[in-house]
Write a structure and sequence with these properties.
Number of strands of chain B: 8
Largest interface: A-B, 81 and 57 residues
CATH topology of the largest domain in chain B: Immunoglobulin-like
Largest sheet of chain B: 4 strands, antiparallel
Order of helices and strands of chain B: HHHHHHEEEEEEEE
Largest sheet of chain A: none
Radius of gyration of chain B: 22 Å
Strand content of chain B: 15-25%
Strand order of the largest sheet of chain B: 1-2-3-6
Structural class of chain A: mainly alpha
CATH architecture of the largest domain in chain B: Sandwich
Radius of gyration of chain A: 17 Å
CATH class of the largest domain in chain A: Mainly Alpha
Number of strands of chain A: 0
Number of helices of chain B: 6
Strand content of chain A: under 5%
CATH architecture of the largest domain in chain A: Orthogonal Bundle
CATH class of the largest domain in chain B: Mainly Beta
Mean pLDDT of chain B: 79
Low-confidence stretches of chain B: 80-117
Shape of chain A: globular
Oligomer: heterodimer
Helix content of chain B: 25-40%
Shape of chain B: globular
Mean pLDDT of chain A: 85
CATH superfamily of the largest domain in chain A: RNA polymerase sigma factor, region 2, helix turn helix motif
Chain lengths: 178, 222
């Protein structure tokens, strides 16, 4: 039950426990800030987005189902969704090509440990993909690249990129589910 | 391409994956997002992909976040509990100290300078013609916040109830409008939908439909 402390905190937020909300912020904000900084690349916007993310976390806590997956994964999904919405709302020509990141810390040991099993399987499944296509999937997931960005980066037509990516995702899914 | 055409389920699953990965352009993404809200089967596919891709999350390094809790709590809980009330967490301790001291004004200014103001967007104003009673509806963080900006509560034994009405559909209650702002986990309704306020007995309509007179209404986005 307490093997996922973040999940337990989200459940308490769903019961309107404000103290749990503060603990959740303390224990998860560095990770979510890392997500938002990497994707949005601007500190002021990342901080603004972080406020919105936690607002959503509080309001939607009741929808989290611990049976479906880890609490941190759910939080990151909310942060990524918001970041992608904001990226797509920017002008298409504003797509970031500079990847110099503002990252300054490595994931905490315990976070790495908990997520290790998941990450290991994912890494194994990535091994089954063509290396260039694996990079495409990672670029989209971690940096929020759109089809347009990816097609330009890899100098292929958009439809080709779409076919690559759909096939890669399908392969990943099959691998993860076996 | 050489792919066999996808059946509907496969096509939906591929779209869910693309949505989660975030590669869709703005228009396709908005379409997928609205589908999540009305199609539980598709929503479940999206959730499955969100957890499925969790194995990549190690790729995000942590980055120290400033303490934005005061701003977040101010958005969520319009009247924050003062220190000494419930839990004396580290935040309420600081908050109590700030609010208790005159220099507080300076500290608050400093916070305002460093924390970008939350983005909020006015969706609608529900008002009587003479504006003696008015509610303002704003969007923030994917939720709606409804605040009475003019006039008084419904009076003893009665309450204002807020309704959302899709074109040609029955009204759905969004909650009761009291003295504190109402926050509803409801995305901005599409243009053409209607927000309405009815006058109900204390506790609100029991039947799930408005039983008292509709005193205010506004159509979204026109």
């Amino acid at each position: 039950m307490s093997s996922d402390p973040i999940a337990a905190l989200i459940a308490r937020c769903a019961a309107a426990d404000r103290a749990a909300f503060r603990t959740l912020y303390r224990d998860s904000s560095a990770k979510l800030m890392g997500v938002l900084l990497r994707m949005l690349q601007e500190r002021a916007e990342a901080e603004d987005a972080l406020q919105e993310v936690y607002t959503r976390v509080w309001l939607r806590a009741g929808r989290y189902d611990a049976a479906k997956g880890r609490g941190m994964t759910w939080l990151i999904a909310i942060a990524r969704n918001l970041a992608i919405d904001r990226l797509r709302a920017r002008h298409e020509d504003h797509s970031d090509d500079g990847l110099d990141s503002v990252q300054d810390t490595t994931p905490r040991a315990e976070t790495r440990l908990i997520a290790k099993g998941e990450a290991k399987r994912m890494a194994d499944c990535f091994e089954t993909l063509d290396p260039e296509r694996a990079e495409v999937v990672k670029g989209a997931y971690l940096d929020g690249f759109s089809y347009l960005d990816l097609a330009a980066q890899h100098a292929v037509p958009l439809n080709t990129m779409r076919t690559w990516l759909r096939r890669s995702l399908q392969k990943l899914k099959e691998c993860l589910e076996t | 391409m050489t792919d066999a055409p996808l059946n509907q389920r496969e096509a939906d699953d591929a779209l869910a994956a693309e949505y989660v990965l975030g590669v869709l352009d703005r228009v396709d993404r908005a379409e997928a997002a609205s589908r999540i809200k009305r199609d539980p089967g598709f929503a479940a596919m999206v959730t499955a992909w969100e957890f499925r891709m969790g194995g990549l999350n190690d790729g995000f390094a942590e980055a120290p976040a400033p303490n934005l809790l005061p701003a977040i709590e101010a958005r969520l809980f319009p009247k924050p509990a003062r220190a000494g009330g419930e839990t004396g967490g580290w935040f309420s301790g600081i908050f109590g100290w700030v609010s208790g001291v005159l220099v507080g004004a300076f500290v608050v200014l400093a916070v305002v300078a460093f924390v970008a103001p939350p983005r909020s967007m006015r969706i609608a104003t529900l008002a009587t013609v003479d504006h003696r009673l008015a509610y303002e509806v704003v969007e923030f963080g994917g939720a709606l916040k409804i605040t009475r900006v003019e006039g008084d509560s419904a009076g003893a034994g009665r309450v204002h109830e807020l309704w959302l009405i899709a074109p040609g559909k029955a009204p759905v209650s969004l909650g009761l409008l009291e003295d504190t702002p109402l926050i509803v986990d409801q995305p901005v309704p599409p243009a053409g939908w209607t927000l309405a306020v009815s006058l109900e007995a204390a506790g609100g309509s029991k039947s799930g439909v408005p039983t008292g007179p509709v005193i205010l209404s506004a159509e979204i986005g026109t």
